[in-house]
Structure formats: structure tokens, C-alpha cells
Amino acid sequence: MEVLLCIAAGMLFTVGTYLILAKSLLRIALGTSLISHGVHLLLLTMAGVKRGAPPLLGEEAQAYTDPLPQALILTSIVISFGVTSFFFVLAYRAYKELGTDDMEQLRGQGDE
Amino acid sequence: MLLHAAVLLPLLFTIFVPLLYKAFPKLHTGWAVLAVPVVLFVFFVMQIPGQMNGGSAQSAAIPWIPALDISFALVLDGLSLLFALLITGIGALVVLYSISYLSRDKEAIHRFYVYLLLFMGAMLGVVLSDNLIVLYGFWELTSLSSFLLIAFWYKRDRSRYGALKSMLITVAGGFAMLGGFVLLYVMGGTFSIRELVAGLDGFSGDALFVPAMLLVLLGAFTKSAQFPFHIWLPDAMEAPTPVSAYLHSATMVKAGLYLVARMSPVFAGEAVWFWLVSGVGLATLLWGSYCAVRQTDLKAVLAYSTISQLGLIMSLLGIGSAAAHQGMAEDAVAAYAGAIAAALFHLFNHATFKGTLFMVVGIVDHETGTRDLRRLGGLMALMPVTFALALVASFSMAGIPPFNGFLSKEMFFTGALKAAELSLFGVPGWSALFPIIAWAASVFTFIYCMIVVFKTFAGRFKAEALDHKPHEAPLLMLVPPAVLASLVIVVGLFPGLVAGSLIEPALAAVLPAQADAYHVKITMWHGWTTELFMTIGVVAVGIALFLTLRYWQGIYALLPGRLTFNRVYDGLLRVLDRGSLFLTGRYMTGSLRHYLIYIFAFMIGLLGWMMLRLDVLGGGSPVYAELSFYEVVLVAVIVLAALAVPLAASRLTAILLTGAVGYIVSLLFVVLRAPDLALTQLIVETVSVTLFLLCFYHLPKLRKEMAPLPFKLGNALISVGVGLVVTTIALVVSGARKFDSISDFFIAQSYELAGGRNMVNVILVDFRGFDTLLEIMVLGIASLGIYALIKLRLADGEGGERLENK
Question: Is residue B674 less than 8 Å (CB to CB) from chain A?
Fold first, then answer.
């Protein structure tokens, strides 16, 4: 199970990185999204999966799945949501103002 | 403690200078500042009796960073005292002089005095510190304050150029010196100079000993403007004249001499030290005096003259170090100790006569509006007092009796003649160069001294070259140079006044082991000695050459020629400038993609290399959870959907595919027993996809990436690399647990302490509540940013800029 998740996280990183290196702002935004999914899987895998019941005390189980990475991921999901939405609006506004979404055209001047 | 107070007083007083400047608009702030050096001067004068006749050094230490053997330790011995008196004494006169030199109405005098006091405190720190690291700190602080003072008129190009030059050269030297200090620490195990001297036998044969010495000397040579690092001093003359008189002739440039004298007990036994210090000193002496003659700016003459005089003192310190050599006869030790005494005496004399000359030049500049020798002349009748002061000081510098310069010049000749007896490189003839160079340099010295006096004050008065008619300076401006000039005469006539009180204690500090062999006795008349004939020769040849100056001036067009050290400096600076611009331009391209590539490549390289080195995947047989059919399907869908994103032809497909990945991940969370995550992810994913679609309704159609194949291949290569590294990391960390998780605490306590049954929630809102609070803040900031971006409409005023960018 863990091996499979590791490979999945690696694939998400691969595709995410590939998209981030592209020129179009849309692709870059989608890439960050995919990478954050990869990070979540990575975090979850690190703690070991399916080691017990869901971390709810009412379950009356002998063992529980590690709650700490879940808490971290929850934070991360929310934060990456904030970042991604800001990024999207930024892309939208940049396009509206500058008329392009191509990173090569958005780059700084040579003498700056 | 009083010593610490003495060092800190000027530094602390800087705080009050701007306040005083504001509070008393009528008062020239200099009057208030004057109190500081005067008080300190009196304090140090009171210390003289304690140091005379073999008095012991005073010391006080405040622990600072004990773990690194750094303590704010101050020691007052004869050498420190001599310098401290110069710093505070000349400092007081310079502040007094500056009151009439810098007008309150026209100049930013509050800044001036802040810098000046900063320098004073730093310089006192240099000469009083016993800890090498503290000494280094103060040393660089003097460079810094010198930089600020040279650039005082920062609107002038030349000022900024000179300030930068002095800063670069002296700080580079200081940095080398720090390296030397660290090497000394490595060998001696202490940063305290006194402890180093005491433990010298333990490490003087160390392989690092000579490198440490060379590095320390580099610091001393750059600071004291020794050949070939002298080039910064003439450019430093852009500073206001009181600064030139104070920093660049009397005190700061002597810090290098101080360091050489201070470190003499450590290094003097080494032959390299002797040859290097005396050789560089003589080269500087000759080159400085030779160059001084061709200058047309009065201050430039004085700058080169200062360089040359610093070289003279340096060479004397070098010659005198022979006293510490092994197996010297008793009388030879005494003779070489005499050279050190001559160095210290000349150091004092130079401060008096050069200080006078700088102030005189300042007066001439102030009254006539120029320092150009070609426009000056005949001021004798107009400014008789100034002329008299200049005459005394110049004749002293030229080595003419009965002034103090004559005495130390004679002692210099004695030292040079004594050094001629040494066999250099085993060949006796070489050391004959010592007196020859000394004599030749003295002739040039004599000539430029005459130039300073007679080209300015004698000859025809060129009224047409001046903007207005000059007249004698105000009394207040004449007092400081008059005090110094009277010292020149008094010390010249009664050298015993300083010999026993200042020079002998200082000598004892430089040559602690040999101090008993020599007693400083300076007299005007020695009989018909070789030295006296040398002086007579200097005067005779000097007068002849001065009178025939215009016939042989042509050699200056030949000898320094095109290759000067200034060109080397400028060239180096240009190469550095262009080189860094070129280099930075190479990698700082402004393209986001390039920067990301650096980051990813670095990550792959570093992590991959470390993992290969540590062989992380080998060993250990981790226990994995069992695999079910649903999970394989879910993961397969995630991977397929993700892979399809880059291939998607339309933006809608791309967004939906990304959304699909997100939704399947939340399903996976369910399988992996993380219900909270699944819920959150579902909500967030829904909102994000909606937002994406809203935004991209306005964005252009997704173009096919029009990029060359290498571009895509490169991207793919980096992506695969990142993926591999991440997969490996994930495998490694999921397979091995080095220590117990802290999660057991949360599982056990979530109901006990927080009363919640959902552990994830309890962690978020209770155990790590502040985290969540800040997270909410992040979201709040992001939403504010989003709101501002949506509302943003660039006004017409900024629209112009927008057009430019198109």
C-alpha cells in the first residue's frame, strides 16, 4: 500500500513540476495544485497508513490511525486553497492588465 | 573601569550631538563636542606618572563572549598612552579648529561631529584593546568613520570615489588581519595580546607563524598607506581639512604603525618581519617623497609627504625589531632599540608638525579659495602668522635644527647606518642601501618642504588668479596650529620633556625584554657625527635641487609613467564591476522558469546525491499495510488523470482533470481512515474548481505550448528527477521510524485534556490552537488580497506606465 502511495505522490510531483515549468499561467496554477496533492499523500504515507481505526474516540478501537499528519494536512489543504485562489485571481488580474499570460513575456527587463 | 568609560565616552556622546544641535541653534555644536577630547586628554595626561620609570600597565576587562575567548579587555601601557594622548590631544585641537573651519550655517556639522566622535572612540578602542577580536572591531570602525568623513561632502564625485577607495583598501587589509588574528588564536590558544606574548615560546616555531605575520602586516600596511597600498591616501584628501589633519595624518593612518609596534613583541624575532617591515617602509618613504615633489595641490603634497613619513616610521620599527633577534651583542641591542625610540619619537613629532601643516593649508584654502600651487604665491605679507607657522612646521619636517624633526631625523640616520652593518641575504653590500635610500628620500623630503613654504608664501602674489583678496585667518583658527607649532619648537629644544615621560614607557611596551638595555636620551648636539654630515648634505643638495627644480622636473613625466597603482586599482574595480554584472546577468534572467529550474535542480542534486551516498534504500524490511483492489483503482485513476493534464487541449479539460485528481484524493482519504480530510478536501475542491472556471472564463484559450523540443525535454527531465527524488524520500521515510511518534500523547489525552473525541479537530483547535489562529490570519490576508485584486483598476495616472510596458 505505502509503496503504491509513494509512487502516486512521485507521479503527482512529476506532473506538477512539468506544469510549473510551462509558460502559461494556467498550467502553472494547476501544477501547484497537483503538487499540493502530492504533498498531502506524502505526509499521510510518512506516518504509515491503516494502522487502526479512524482517529475518533467513539470508535472504541484498540488502535487508531495517527491523527497528527491528518491535522497537518488539514492545515495544508486550507492554506493551499488560500494560496491557489490568490494565485488564480492574480493571474486573472495580470492578464486583464497586461494582456498576456505567457511567463516569458511577463519577465523583467534585462537592465533591472 | 575608567578605561572603558574613556573609550565609550566619545561613542556615547554621539547620541547627544544631534540633540544639542537642535536644542541650541545659536551655539556652534563644536564647543560642546570640544569637552570630550579635552576631558579625555586630561585623564590620559594624569596617567603619565603611573607609566614612567617602569610603571606597570593598567588593565580592566569586562567579559563579553567567554565561550569564544572574547572579552572587552583594555590595557593601558606606555605605547597605548602615547597614542591615546595623540588621539585626544590632536582631537581637541582639531575640534577647536573645525569650529571656525566649518560654518554652522552652511555645513551639516552635527553629522560631522557624530562621525568625528565615532572615530575618536574607535581609535581609542584600537590602541587600548588587549583582545585581538575587539581590536579588530574597533579597527574596522575607524575605517568606517573614515569613509563617512571622507565622503562628508558626498555630493562631490571625487569625495565618493576617495571614500570608497579608502574603505575598500583598508577593509580588505583589515579582513586579512582578522585572518592573521585567527591563526594566532589557533597557535597560541588566546586572543589576548599579553597572553600571546607570554606564551610566545610555545608557538613561535609553528608552520602558521609566518602566514599569520604576513596577514597581520597586510592589515597594518593597508591602514598605514604603505607602498603599494598608499594610493588611497591622496584621494582621501577630499575630506574636510580638519579630518585630513586628524585621521589621515595624525591618528588613523598611524593605526598600522601601532599594530606593528604592538605586535613587535610577538613577531620581532622573525627575520622576515625585519626585512618586510623595514623594506616596505623604506620603499614607501622613497616613493612618497619622490611623488610629493611633483604635486601641484597643496593637500596632495601633504598626502604624499604623510605617506613618506609613515614609511620612515615603519622602516624604523622594522630596523628596531633586530633588537629582538637572537645572539645580538649588548651594544647592538641598544642601538636597535634606539631605532624603535626614534620611530616613537618621530611618530609624535610627525603628529605635531604635520598637524600644523594641514591646518595651515586649511587656512590658506579657506582664505584664498584654492590649494593650487600654481595660483598661490606671495602670501607672506598678507598672512604673516600663518607663514611663520608653516615655516616652523616645514623646517621641522625637512629636518632642520632646532626643531623636533631634526632630532628624530638624526636618530633615523643612526638607525639606517646601524642597519647597514647587517648582512642582507648573506651579501654584506646590500644593506648599504639602507642609509642611501634614507638619504635620498630625505633630499626629496627637503625639497617638498621648501615647496610647501616658499611656493605658497614667497614669490610673486598672483592676485589675478584668486577670487578675492586673502587676509590673515581669525585668531580662533590660528590657535590650534600655533599650539602644535610651539610644541615643535619646545620639544626640539627640550626633547627630555617627552623622552622620559612618553617615549621610554612606550619603548618598554614595544621591546619588553630589551627595554633595560637602552635609555632614551635625546640631545641636539652629538658632535661631528656621520649623521650630521648626512644632514648637511641633505640641506645642500636639497637647496640646489629646489632652486633648479624646473630643469629636472621632466623626470616625472618619465618615471611614474602610465603604469601607476591607481590604474591597477581602477582597472580591478572595473573588471569586478563588469564581471559581476556579466555573471549576474547570466543567471538572473528575470524568467520564472529559470529560477524554478535552479531550485529543482538543486533539490534533485543535493537530495539525490545525499541519498546515494547514504544508501538509504538498502537494509531494513518495513512492514507495509495490505493492498486492496479499490485502492489500486483509486491510485491508478489519480495517476492517469494527473498525466492527462499536460496533454489536455482545452482549459476546461485541464481544470476538470485537476479537479478529478482532487476528488479522487478525497476518496482515498476515506479509504485511508481520514474522514475529516475527505470532507475538507471535497469542499475545498468544489470551491476551487468553481473559482478556476470563473477566472478562466476571462483568460485566453489554452494555447498549445509552442516550445522547442529541447525545452520540453528539459522540463520533462527535471520533472522526472523531482518525482524520483520525492518517491525515494517517501519510500525511505515510510519504511523506517527512527523514534516514537508524539501522536500517542494526542491519542491518549485528547479526551482527558480537551474533552473532544475527534482527535484531528482537538489537535487543530486546542493543542495547536495558535497554529490554526495564524492559519485563519493567512486566509484573511489572502482574501483581502483577492478582494483588492478584483477591485483593482489602474487609474489613468498609472496607465501611462502600463502603456510603456507594452
Answer: yes
